[in-house]
Amino acid sequence: IGMRYSRTVRPEGEKGPLFLSSATVVIVEAVKLPVCLCAAAYQLRRHNGLVELLRRELLFNPVDTLKCAVPALCYTIQGNLLYTAVQHLEAPTFQVIYQCKTVFTCIFAYLCLSKRLTARQWLAILLLILGTILASDVVGSFGAKSRSHDAVASKRHTSDSRVMQALTHALGLHAESLSWLIGVSATLASAVLSAASSVYFERLLKAPASDDAAVAGLWLRNIQLGIFALPLSSFVMIAQDGKQLHNHGMLHGFNWVVWLCVFLNSGGGLLVAAVMKYAGNVEKCFATSVSIVVSALLSVPCFGWQPNRAFTAGAMLTCAATCYYAYLSSRPTGAHNSGHACGGSQVGMLHAEDGDTPKLHPGQREEEMPLSLNGK
């Protein structure tokens, strides 16, 4: 809601272009990096210390650090795509479609980690896909009429309106239909990047490590991610919005809503990690389902959005499928295919957002459970 509000609703008297979404990605990374450094220093207080660990891992093991460049690039692109998605889609529609990351995660886990799904999990995924199709309202989105008043506002406040007009003319689509198409494409691309980077990040976290690196495994990997994500996001900001950056500055258009979104995105990973550690995947997915409902309710007064029957049915089906898949993944390994399914003991650990309950490795303490803080 906050991200969409910041991109579609402008305070009275505010002039000039909208704030740079690429700048928010840079600031989010700049906030998360010191948080991870402090957390790693706290966990290593009884060991050799953070400085010694960073010296050994960054200077004397550069190849291992370079491996984090791949997910860092994915997270950087994903962060920019998320703002594009929420600018062109209603917040509830975006949330429902974004749940497809569970599907993509299982596909990448099968291809990269040889993980298999049970028949019931495949059923949950099929229901999730069906719910997403219903909620996205594909047929209605290509109608001639505008779906909401803020779709036009989004187009009017977009800095690249000339590009939008050219695409509308070239593709023969209405402005609202093109806006919907851009939003769905950005959402699906974000989901794919989230899934791919999460599976890749899992492989990094499961790699053998020294005692100190194992204690600070989560924080060390996120520090390594931040080392690459911060300059990468800065490069994207300069390359994409260099002219506006030069004319108006990096923080132009930043109001309290934008800053709220920055800190929510920065702390979101910490909250997800806390939920996964002290509650579980079922509770997290239930909270996700509740958030979809809350977003739908808040979108009515904030944006004048009116949900139709297709969205209501699709959202309910998506919530049910998400919770059902989480329930299957959290069951004991003997309950479904002896741990060979996605979410069983052989699965290991996936990104905190991607539909699998983290499992402890032999000899691993609970506080060492690796959860990436970069997912959206």
Characterise this structure.
With 376 residues, this protein is mostly helical. The protein has one domain (2-368). Helices cover 70% and strands 0% of the residues. It contains 17 helices and no strands. The longest helix is centred in the middle third of the chain and has 32 residues, at 217-248. It starts with a helix and ends in a 46-residue tail after the last helix. Residues 139-159, 334-341 and 343-372 have low confidence and may be disordered.
Features:
0% strand; 17 helices; mainly alpha; 376 residues; globular
Concise account of the structure shown:
The protein has 376 residues and is mostly helical. It has one domain (2-368). The chain has helices at 2-8, 21-43, 50-59, 62-66, 69-88, 91-98, 101-113, 119-136, 138-141, 149-156, 161-171, 175-205, 211-215, 217-248, 256-278, 281-303, 309-330.
